[in-house]
Automatic annotation (TrEMBL):
<dbReference type="InterPro" id="IPR019734">
    <property type="entry name" value="TPR_rpt"/>
</dbReference>
<feature type="region of interest" description="Disordered">
    <location>
        <begin position="306"/>
        <end position="336"/>
    </location>
</feature>
<keyword id="KW-1133">Transmembrane helix</keyword>
<feature type="transmembrane region" description="Helical">
    <location>
        <begin position="6"/>
        <end position="27"/>
    </location>
</feature>
<dbReference type="InterPro" id="IPR011990">
    <property type="entry name" value="TPR-like_helical_dom_sf"/>
</dbReference>
<dbReference type="InterPro" id="IPR056412">
    <property type="entry name" value="Ig_CycH"/>
</dbReference>
<keyword id="KW-0802">TPR repeat</keyword>
<feature type="repeat" description="TPR">
    <location>
        <begin position="88"/>
        <end position="121"/>
    </location>
</feature>
<feature type="transmembrane region" description="Helical">
    <location>
        <begin position="34"/>
        <end position="52"/>
    </location>
</feature>
<keyword id="KW-0472">Membrane</keyword>
<feature type="domain" description="Cytochrome c-type biogenesis protein H TPR">
    <location>
        <begin position="77"/>
        <end position="192"/>
    </location>
</feature>
<protein>
    <submittedName>
        <fullName>Cytochrome C biogenesis protein</fullName>
    </submittedName>
</protein>
<dbReference type="Pfam" id="PF23892">
    <property type="entry name" value="Ig_CycH"/>
</dbReference>
<dbReference type="Pfam" id="PF23914">
    <property type="entry name" value="TPR_CcmH_CycH"/>
</dbReference>
<keyword id="KW-0812">Transmembrane</keyword>
<feature type="domain" description="Cytochrome c-type biogenesis protein H Ig-like">
    <location>
        <begin position="226"/>
        <end position="332"/>
    </location>
</feature>
<dbReference type="InterPro" id="IPR056413">
    <property type="entry name" value="TPR_CcmH_CycH"/>
</dbReference>
Length: 336
């Protein structure tokens, strides 16, 4: 286990890295004194927070030198990870810090260490694959990076970043038609501006594959809709007070595959949530809500925000609804 002082040093450096996005111009401009002062201030603030909420005596186990720059902070973090190599968050923090300074090969190695400890984290798999490509002189994804992206998509089928990057890999490898089909699955999830930009990439891939341009964007859904009102039981209302849980409202084919035909994702709240599912909420353009006579609807409260069910998630009992529904569906999530 990492000692409290080391952990607090990591947290302090994380504050420096986050701040570094806006503070790096000062460093590049030669204002290193300002940089060092701001880094020190963030570390001191982190330690002060611990003293307020934790055990101040624990910080006295060893002194924590304040880094004068991000590069020096990375050196300290590397040394901490050599002594405590079993922290996923430490390796991820180190990788992101190295990326900030353009050390892409080092960042890729750090992400690989993190994946050895947490091989089934979709977000981490995607970050690691992208860092591995950034470390390549030609910015190419290798077979390992592709395997990580595919595994991320298996774990989280709606991970848009994984889908986008898989399409890029396919384009890099001359698989233009496959890339177009991969990206087309993203279109229903995107707003107009993003969808238009992606459609341009899809049409370029289709042209390279000798295919005609994709069909024009469909107008806003006016067909079958299903209104669902989700109310959290009192036992769950306290849980969502922190604002970190995610509420999924899902419709799928009764007795069919687990892939939703319509899904909406919202920050969980204590108050009842009303959503209207329609064809625009389909993650797969080939399977629309309006094409089905009946669906199975349920709600899921997720601590991880992952669309795939995880330990600790709470689901309502699925309810079968004939379409079109004559009235809103009422769902209560959690014990009565």
């Amino acid at each position: 286990m990492v000692s409290t002082p080391v952990f607090m040093a990591l947290a302090g450096l994380l504050a420096a890295v986050v701040g570094g996005v806006t503070l790096l111009p000062l460093l590049r401009a030669g204002k290193r004194g300002i940089w060092g002062t701001l880094v020190a201030a963030m570390v001191v603030a982190t330690l002060g927070l611990y003293q307020w909420r934790g055990t101040p005596a624990a910080l006295q186990v060893q002194s924590i030198p304040v880094p004068a720059s991000l590069a020096e902070g990375i050196e300290q973090l590397q040394e901490a990870m050599r002594r405590n190599p079993d922290r996923v968050d430490g390796w991820v923090l180190l990788a992101r810090s190295q990326q900030e300074l353009g050390r892409m090969a080092d960042a890729a190695t750090s992400y690989e260490h993190a994946l050895q400890l947490a091989p089934d984290e979709p977000g981490l798999l995607v970050e690691a694959a992208q860092a591995r490509a950034q470390a390549d002189p030609k910015l190419l994804f290798d077979d390992t990076g592709l395997q990580w992206l595919q595994h991320a998509r298996e774990l989280a089928p709606d991970n848009e970043r994984a889908i986008w990057l898989i399409g890029i890999v396919q384009r890099q490898r001359g698989q233009a038609e496959a890339a177009a089909h991969t990206w087309e699955t993203l279109l229903p999830r995107l707003k107009d501006g993003a969808a238009t930009a992606l459609r341009e990439q899809i049409d370029a891939a289709r042209a390279d594959a000798g295919l005609p341009p994709s069909a024009p964007a469909a107008p806003a859904a006016t067909g079958t809709t299903l209104t669902v009102r989700v109310t959290l039981a009192p036992a769950l209302q306290a849980r969502v007070a922190s604002g970190t849980d995610t509420l999924f409202v899902i419709a799928r084919i009764p007795g069919g595959p687990p892939m939703p035909v319509a899904v909406e994702r919202h920050p969980a709240q204590a108050e009842p949530l009303t959503v209207t599912l329609d064809d625009a909420d389909s993650p797969m353009p080939t399977q629309k809500l309006s094409a089905l006579p009946e669906v199975e609807v349920f709600a899921r409260l997720s601590a991880s925000g992952n669309a795939m069910r995880q330990d600790g998630d709470v689901e309502s009992t699925p309810v079968q609804v004939k379409l079109p529904a004559g009235k809103p569906l009422e769902i209560t999530l959690g014990p009565s």
